[in-house]
């Protein structure tokens, strides 16, 4: 895991909606937590279960290569991701987006805040 200065440097280069290719490296509790993704950065990528399909059988398995978007990055050295492939995204994503991140479309391309 990256130390704080390394995470700050990495986070400063990230943009909301930025696409990254990655490989699913862990699915610790299918249907419950989310998936860990290696996107080639010094921090772990993570897709929260709330963004994945309700049916855990549709979650990408370990070893799956796919494209992901930068969803969020906070102070904790972990990059939050959203699957690009609709097969790996919750079925009601548009409704979810309107409810929980209605400003998301305007965020696309903007830098991820450093604080």
Can you put this structure into words, describing what you see?
By secondary structure, this protein is an alpha+beta fold. The protein has a single domain, classed as OB fold (Dihydrolipoamide Acetyltransferase, E2P) (Beta Barrel). Helices cover 18% and strands 29% of the residues. It is built from 3 helices and 5 strands, in the order αβββββαα. It has a 5-stranded mixed β-barrel. The chain is globular, with a radius of gyration of 14 Å. The model has no long low-confidence stretch (mean pLDDT 92).
Count of DSSP E strands? 5
Number of discrete helical segments: 3
What gross morphology would you assign? Answer: globular
Q: Which homologous superfamily in CATH is the superfamily? A: Nucleic acid-binding proteins
CATH topology: OB fold (Dihydrolipoamide Acetyltransferase, E2P)
Task: Report on the biggest sheet.
Answer: 5 strands, mixed, barrel
Give unreliable regions as ranges.
Answer: none
Radius of gyration equals: 14 Å
Task: Write the element-wise H/E pattern from the N-terminal end onward.
Answer: HEEEEEHH
Numbering strands along the chain, what is their spatial order in the largest sheet?
1-2-3-5-4
How far apart the termini lie comes to 19 Å
Name of the CATH architecture: Beta Barrel
For the record, the count of structural domains works out to 1
Mean pLDDT: 92
In the CATH scheme, the class would be Mainly Beta
Strand content: 25-35%
């Amino acid at each position: 895991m990256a130390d704080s200065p390394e995470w700050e440097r990495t986070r400063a280069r990230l943009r909301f909606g930025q696409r990254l290719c990655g490989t699913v490296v862990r699915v610790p509790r299918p249907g419950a937590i989310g998936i860990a993704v290696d996107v080639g950065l010094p921090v772990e990528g993570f897709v929260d279960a709330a963004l994945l399909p309700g049916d855990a059988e549709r979650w990408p398995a370990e070893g799956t290569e796919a494209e992901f978007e930068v969803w969020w990055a906070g102070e904790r050295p972990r990059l939050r991701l959203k699957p690009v492939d609709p097969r790996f995204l919750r079925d009601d994503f548009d409704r979810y987006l309107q409810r929980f991140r209605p400003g998301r479309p305007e965020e696309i391309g903007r830098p991820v805040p450093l604080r």
